[in-house]
Amino acid sequence: MADGITPRATDYSQWYLDVIAAAELSDYSPVKGCMVFRPHGFAVWDLMKNDLDRRFRETGHVNAYFPLLIPVSFLSKEAQHVEGFAKECAVVTHHRLRMAEGGGVEPDPASKLEEPLVIRPTSETIIWHMYGQWIQSWRDLPILINQWANIVRWEMKTRPFLRTAEFLWQEGHTAHATRSEAVEEARRMLDVYEAFAADVLALPVVKGVKSTSERFAGAEDTYCIEALMQNGWALQAGTSHFLGQNFARAFDVSFQNTAGEREFVWATSWGVSTRLIGAVIMTHSDDTGLVLPPAVAPVQVVITPIWKSDSERELVLGHAERVRAALGSEFRVKVDARDTIKPGAKYFEWERKGVPLRLEIGPRDVAGDSVFAAPRTGGKKFGIPAATVADGVRAALAAIQAELYSRARARRDETMRTCTSYEGFKVELEKGGFVRTYWADDAANEEKIKEDTKATIRCFPLEGQEEAAGQTCFYSGRPATHVALFARAY
Amino acid sequence: MADGITPRATDYSQWYLDVIAAAELSDYSPVKGCMVFRPHGFAVWDLMKNDLDRRFRETGHVNAYFPLLIPVSFLSKEAQHVEGFAKECAVVTHHRLRMAEGGGVEPDPASKLEEPLVIRPTSETIIWHMYGQWIQSWRDLPILINQWANIVRWEMKTRPFLRTAEFLWQEGHTAHATRSEAVEEARRMLDVYEAFAADVLALPVVKGVKSTSERFAGAEDTYCIEALMQNGWALQAGTSHFLGQNFARAFDVSFQNTAGEREFVWATSWGVSTRLIGAVIMTHSDDTGLVLPPAVAPVQVVITPIWKSDSERELVLGHAERVRAALGSEFRVKVDARDTIKPGAKYFEWERKGVPLRLEIGPRDVAGDSVFAAPRTGGKKFGIPAATVADGVRAALAAIQAELYSRARARRDETMRTCTSYEGFKVELEKGGFVRTYWADDAANEEKIKEDTKATIRCFPLEGQEEAAGQTCFYSGRPATHVALFARAY
Fold first, then answer.
1. What ipTM was assigned to the predicted interfaces of this complex?
2. Domain spans in chain B, listed from the N-terminal domain onward
3. Chain B: nearest CA to A122, how far in angstroms?
4. For residue A447, which of A2, A100, A228, B378 sits 20 to 30 Å off, Cα-Cα?
């Protein structure tokens, strides 16, 4: 793209890349599949991280940090786990470089490791090895640890934020004395994710559980939140796994219960990643550029002074600084006092960067002791008296946050149709969105549908499963076991 | 160690490891040289990070994130840089595992990378590659970016926090239009580190510049802050490099100046790491265990209720909760209401964990509507009226923070002796601490002294260099060029 943003209707994928480039959220790196988080994009992640971290603390979790590198033998200990991750691991084989004969450097053969290491694709194995050292008795339980970390999963087809070789995430890893406590934890964290997505990211999500074929490698149950993008594709926005005793068995982690018997420990893990930035971009942005919910906007309010003469300049800049001072530290505010570009160009730039609210200040606003407010989400511009500018901005930002949520919610709900025949299903699928079905669980049929339509089961929604009773599977005609949401997905 | 902590006088190295184990700050990992940051240790880092991050923002910096993996050819572009880091790089050579014939997994030969990647030992090369894309004109400067990241430098001899293969750090990387602006930035960040060390970590440091042989690989000047541990060894606690145009040349990063000419960009980089946790432990802790300055103590105040009967229990717990409420969110407070262990055992545990202030609450304290305060740094216990408990705690924590600094400062100042002969130097060195000398700069002599005494030049202190004029080098007898601080160092 040059300076323009491809319209969504023309090419949705290109639009996404153009929005990212225009907002300077990320850049391509010289390492295939790895991206650079530019300051504006990283600031969005920092805001998400701070909010999530508070929610994790409030639910009793603490942060820790485990090694980046994992011995390959650890991966093999859990059979499904290694199958799920072996094909996308970055492998460290040497610990030194030497000068190469033809110039440059190369791995020093003398530094070859006895056992290769992988860069963590997820940390269950190394963490459960450590839990094995820390857990002896019921008194040591529960362990409620979260880690903020970088992850590498080698990907051939990448897309900024949504699918990259390296990404940033948090991974919670908890250990419990009972199955029910672990299940409760997995469900609790799913609720935390749902509330965070709704309240902070303005993303309405469906809570559900994955079918066997979409389950995390090593889990008994994978719970998920699924969001819907503007092009009608679904996006998995977070997962919370009930791991049963699989990793405890693999790493021989048992505890003495209150009756003095030894039992294997019960586990969960849960995570969200920088993929959420992609979800936010794809859900809210428009053909003008990035749109950010105020809660994760690095700049929430931009004040743009407008002047024609030097005397006006002094006047409006003074007023702008007073308004900034009145907004205090409650909001993230920027005054754009540049005199190298015109107001229109400033509006254009901040719109593309997704700033939720612009406050224009011209000589007339100074005279009226007010500001002129333009929400990024459109609608009529309106005045706010300078005397109550903090109240006005607070209300405007809340309205923008609420509107983004309700727009996304309406779009999502509109698409949520129930289909009872495969022919009807295929027709509806072309329109995009979630297609709701009654389904007789069967991995082979799931695979056939995927090959045929590119749609997958996004989840069995937690709500409304009782409806499946007495229904017939839309694909096999057998008695339905689940209500299943299908969609094409990122 | 079993449960005991080896006294410092018996074995300082073992004491350090015992303090860490008793406070549950870290643990060994199955990957040689990599450590696990346990929750209590990681919380200390989180507090350091939050405070530093605020200081970086206040000085105009923003955060970003660059890839973990760097093509080996990038390292070679700056000759000194590759020489400094090639011997300690973790090298990624494959991107997939396959099932091995004898069971387990192994790197899949078909996935061998065309060009090996190293895990970043520092990020100058990848960042300057990106700056080459972002910088065209003087309008794009300065760039003031910081990154919080994990780093891998393969180490054979490791020590928790102080020297590990993987560690956590921040690295600032800035780009400027002029030499003087870059030098100013490097010096500004050194001042930020010094203020942080003094105010937050209670570490008095010497600001200085490194000799050629201790300089960062690729820098023109390496500024540093040097701290002194209780055993008389020095520890480099942070560095700030003026990189000149070295990386700009290596990565061909030039800009058009206001006169329309192209010039290479000027650079700095600066960093502190989780090594600071080691510095804090070694500076302040005692034979009882960890001592933490209040500013980085995850728990600043522990309230320990004391009771003998159930009715007393209810009484003191109620009082403890009221005191906690009165302390509000200003302090990090824990009420230890466990009835499984006795008060003495609680005191012992929290002392080993380095909690700065203990508030004991027994029936008599309830009756007197007060608490009984015991600072971790010793001295007489004292009462604080419940009505003014927040004021009392604030003052007590400030006193502890100040006392830790002044104790460390006194210890440091005591050792700071000037030696004018090599014989005297060797005698003084055995007593530990910084030995101040007049020095004629000479890398060969520096190496000889190191071989002979294990001491290195920690820095040429920024203050007092004018004293060297007219003096004679304590080692070579030649005219002195610098005042040099020598010490044995971690």
1. 0.96
2. 12-284, 299-399, 416-487
3. 15
4. A228
Residue with tokens 């993230």: A332
pLDDT means per 10 residues, chain A with 490 residues, are 82 98 97 95 98 98 98 90 90 95 92 97 97 97 98 92 97 98 98 98 98 92 98 97 97 97 98 98 98 98 96 95 96 95 95 98 96 96 97 98 98 93 96 96 97 97 96 97 97
In Å, how far is A43's CA from the nearest CA of chain B? 7
Q: What is the pLDDT of residue A3?
A: 66
Residue B2: its pLDDT value, please? 45
Q: How close does chain B come to A456, measured CA to CA in Å?
A: 26
State the CB neighbour count (10 A cutoff) for residue A335.
Answer: 17
Integer-rounded Cα Rg, in Å, for chain B is: 26
Q: Which residue of A has its CA nearest to B88?
A: A96
Of A65, A74, A166, the CB nearest to B42: A65
Sheet containing strand B301-305, strands side by side: B333-335, B301-305, B357-361, B370-375, B382-385
Distance set, CA A483 to CA A6, B21, B62 (Å): 38, 51, 47
Q: Which residues of chain B make contact with A116, given a CB cutoff of 8 A? A: 94, 106-107
The 10 Å Cβ neighbour count of residue A277 is 26
What confidence score (pLDDT) does residue A304 get?
Answer: 97
Q: B449 vs chain A: nearest CA distance in angstroms?
A: 29
Q: What is residue A289's DSSP assignment?
A: B
Contact criterion met (CB < 8 Å) for A68 and B117: no
Q: What is the CA radius of gyration of chain A?
A: 26
CB pairs under 8 A between A and B: 204
Chain B contact set for A111 (CB, 8 A): 91
CATH architecture of B416-487: 2-Layer Sandwich (3.30)
Detail the DSSP E strand segments found in A194-233.
Answer: 206-209, 221-228
C-alpha B134/C-alpha B137 separation (Å) is: 9
Mean pLDDT on B90-118: 94
A373: Cα separation from own chain's centroid:
30
Specify the fold of A415-487: Translation Initiation Factor IF3 (3.30.110)
Decide if A206 contacts A226 (C-beta within 8 A).
yes
Helix axes B310-327 and B389-415, enclosed angle (nearest 10): 70
Chain B CB contacts of A64 below 8 Å: 36-39, 42
Among A25, A49, A77, A89, most B C-beta atoms within 10 A, so best to mutate, is: A89
Q: CA-to-CA distance for B412 and B195, rounded, in angstroms?
A: 17
Of A42, A97, A150, the CB nearest to B68: A150
pTM of the model: 0.96
**B-chain residues within 8 Å CB-CB of A150?**
68, 149-150
Q: Name the architecture of domain B299-399.
A: 3-Layer(aba) Sandwich (3.40)
pLDDT in tens, B129-182: 999 999 999 999 999 999 999 999 998 889 999 999 999 999 999 999 999 999
Contact A68 B150 (CB under 8 A): yes
pLDDT of residue B3: 66
Give the whole-angstrom CA distance, residue A277 versus residue B119: 25
Closest chain A C-alpha to B227 CA, distance in angstroms: 26
The shortest CB-CB distance from B116 to any of A72, A107, A152 is to A107
Helix (H) or strand (E) holding A171: strand A166-176
Burial-class residue B436 by CB neighbours within 10 Å (0-12, 13-18, 19+).
Answer: buried
| CATH superfamily entry for domain B12-284 | Bira Bifunctional Protein; Domain 2 (3.30.930.10)
Cβ contact, residue pair B166, A90, below 8 Å: no
Fold of A301-396: Rossmann fold (3.40.50)
What is the pLDDT, as a whole number, of residue A78? 85
